[in-house]
Amino acid sequence: MSDKPQNTDQKPQGFIRRFLALPSDSVEKTLFVALSLCLVASMIVSAVAVSLRPIQEVNKLKDKQINILQVAGVYDPSKDVLEAFQAFEPQVLELETGLFTDQFDAATFDDRAAADNPEISIALSDDPAGIGRKSKFVTVYLLRNEDDSIDKLILPIHGYGLWSTLYGFIALEANGNDIYGLQFYSHAETPGLGAEVDNPRWKVLWSGKKLADAQNELQISVTKAVPAAGAEYHVDALSGATLTSVGVHNLVRFWMGEEGYAPFLANLKAGDI
Ligand SMILES: Cc1cc2nc3c(=O)[nH]c(=O)nc-3n(C[C@H](O)[C@H](O)[C@H](O)COP(=O)(O)O)c2cc1C
């Protein structure tokens, strides 16, 4: 028989038992609970984000289609968007030649991804729109009359404002010079200031304006004062948001100029489209 005293307090314990034995308000337990909560919450958020992504993509596409319908003046909220969108003919346009190409599927071509693909995009040295790179190909949308002639052209445009890149569409009449409408579907300008680009009272100012004059000089401008070219080429800058307005001026002129749609519009005017 051993004469050593038996001390039960000294009995070796596992990590879990020792942890459970700690008081509830110990630093270890508090940290454990906080970290566990963070982990579980982040797993739930990630799972929800991943599972909702396909729905978000569908909604994003639908939102873009609604914007195309709106800028073309044919949006009817009571009608199915997908069905109404069937009226539009998407075409992938090669900006440099100003001609349509069938190298890509127009229904699925991703303009934004293309701008990041070095094989089909170029870095801009002269970059008034503040976009860094430009895809050589963009998806444009044609709205045709019943006799198959072009009614309107819907051209994507984008460029930097004050805080963000504004993405939108400009709708042109079939003559390729008269503006039917302009609308942005994505930006992060300040509500009440730069975000007034979404105000219907400002958007309507674009309707009926002309891009270029009789000599085919690009004249469209978004400025505070009416320039010498005249009011038919001018849209008032947003008050209290001159910097966003300068961004819109620059991006519209970039996309309507030689780096953008000018070759396409020249082909259109020459009857080659
Ligand atoms: C918090 C904050 C947000 C602003 N957001 C915008 C904006 O989105 N777009 C813009 O052009 N100016 C914005 N401004 C104002 C600009 O700093 C600048 O004052 C304005 O563009 C000048 O326009 P004005 O010459 O018409 O007054 C913001 C200013 C502040 C303080």
List keywords for this structure.
six-stranded antiparallel sheet; two-stranded antiparallel ribbon; 7 helices; 273 residues; 2 domains; alpha+beta
Task: Describe it.
The chain has 2 domains: 16-77; 87-269, no CATH class. The model has no long low-confidence stretch (mean pLDDT 93). The strands form 3 sheets. Strands 2-1-5-6-7-8 form a 6-stranded antiparallel sheet. The protein has a two-stranded antiparallel ribbon with strand order 3-4. It has helices spanning 15-21, 27-71, 81-85, 111-116, 200-203, 242-256, 262-269; strands spanning 88-94, 99-101, 121-123, 133-135, 137-144, 150-160, 165-173, 179-186, 221-223, 234-236. The longest helix is centred in the first third of the chain and has 45 residues, at 27-71. Helix content is 33%, strand content 21%. With 273 residues, it is an alpha+beta fold. It is built from 7 helices and 10 strands. The chain binds flavin mononucleotide.
